[in-house]
Structure formats: structure tokens, C-alpha cells
Predict the 3D structure of the following.
Amino acid sequence: MRVGVLTGGGDCPGLNAVIRAVVRKGVQEYGYDFTGFRDGWRGPLEGDTVRLDIPAVRGILPRGGTILGSSRTNPLQSENGIHRVKENLAKCEVDALIVIGGEDTLGVATRLSDEYGVKCVGVPKTIDNDLSATDYTFGFNTAVGIATEAIDRLHTTAESHMRVLVVEVMGRHAGWIALHSGLAGGANVILIPEQRFDIERVCGWITSRFKASYAPIVVVAEGAMPKDGEMVLKDGTLDSFGHVRLSGVGEWLAKEIEKRTGKEARTTVLGHVQRGGTPSAFDRWLATRFGLHAIEAVRDGDFGKMVALQGTHIVRVPMGEATARLKTVDPELYTEVGVFFG
């Protein structure tokens, strides 16, 4: 059997660990051959491949990013995109495809599997941790660690200058990174997409913090929105899946805070730093387990499924179910951490 592997969407720590586990177990235990597709769905769309074998995956466990490259290419955009994908899979003699990605990448795999008979197994990848079928996705733990370290460092400079520091982290629809890193880093305000914020209340928390002779840290997810307004954007451009490109709420928030409180405010946008570099031990462990179970699903012929972490067990769930809805922050959980605001 020949198995194809691709990584789509934003890069993320742990992708290489999945690839390594898939290839090592697939070659050593099942005698499979592997073909890697370059740059997400662009690979099968254009027939751009790279050979995957055990020597190719040696030493990649601690490496961030993905040796296969990634992109947000959407084969569903063009009229003959699906036909080209199927044609190139046949030309490469690929019998099954392991798709490592988030909501959009796995959404394409679901269509290919359900409607066009392509044998796909999914592996969940998103640092936002917003796929509902799995307790955690790899990359999230690393992103939270990086954001927490940044917040820790910013506390000292905020207090040295007695200014407000706004930290913008990733999170389009779900505020998991903001919530976890903000709580772990001792932020005084945490703003997430699930809860529209009142700018006056935010300024009240900041003023209260200054009265205690401490400089406040505000952590805001890129998709957070003010109560009386819309999502703040740098520009209105869209990616190939129709998502508007985010970033800008941190800068907007800092200006509003300065204007309303008279206190100096500065913004730090962590951006791609959150998903770059070496994966944490937890993410290497989780990604490796996902890879091992994904190739087992291929061996079992259990296609149209995604591997997922539920409790401490790796299970298989239908890909359509996995991408049907996002996992967002429970309002009760957000209220729970509110005791630290201000």
C-alpha cells in the first residue's frame, strides 16, 4: 500500500512529530510506502510530491513547522479542483491519504471522503484548540507556553514604566490561547471572541490596577470584539477559504485605553511567534500518538475518520462530526477567571 501525507493550513509545532510517527510505524510494522504532498492541498492539486521514508523523518521530532510545507490552498475553489486531486492521487498510486490540518483542511478531506470516495484519515491540527471532537490539539500547548513567557517578561517592563501593555494573541473564533496564557501569566484583563467586551469596563479595570500601584497587562485574542462595534481589522483581504485576515484589535485597544484613561499604552502582537519553534514535550507526545493511531486507522480501512484525544485515550470520530462545530470557551469558565480582572 502507498499512503499519501499532507499538512495544510497554518504551520504549527508538532506537525513533524505526526509525520515521523506515521512513517516509522507504517514502514516498520506494515511495510507501507509513503508519498508526501508539498504545501497542503496544493501538492495533490498540482502533483507536487516528495518521497517519505525512515531516513527522511530522522531528527525531525523536535523541529517546528513542517518538512512538507503548508498552505491555505483550497481545491474546492476551482471547477476541476477535485478532479485534479483525484487524478494526481491515482498517478502517484496513492491508496489512502492522511490529512493533517484544522477545520478548513479537514473540511476538504471530509468532502473528498464522503462525496468522492477518496480514502482519507484526518489528524487534528490547530493551535487555537477549537476542534470540538478532541480535548486538545497539538500546537496549543506550545503556543500557550510561548504566550505565557511573553506575558511574564512584559510584566517587568510595564511596571518599570507604569504603562499599560496590551498583548494580542491568536484566536479567531475561540479564546483558548488568551484564556490559558492570560491566567497563567497573571494578566489583569483577558478579552476573548466569545464574549464581547465593554471598553469602559476594561478602562475601569485598568484604572483600578493603577490605584494599587501596579501596571496592568491586557491579553486580547485577535478575534475579540467591542460590545458596540465590529471586528477590528488591518485590512479586509480574504484567504482562499473566505476568512478575513485578522490582527489590529490590540493596537485599537491601546489607543482607546490611552484616550479614555490618560495612561500610556503599548501593544505587543505575538503573531507567528506563537506557532514557530520547537514543540513542547506535551505536543510532541500528543502529535506522536495521533500519528501512530492515524496509520492504524489506515491499516484497519477505517476511512472518513479523524483521530482525537478524549481523556487520555485516542479515539476515532467521523471527520464531518469533528469539523461540524467549533469548540469555544464556556461562559462559566470565562466568569471563573474574572476574579483576577482589575
About this structure: The chain has a mean pLDDT of 91.
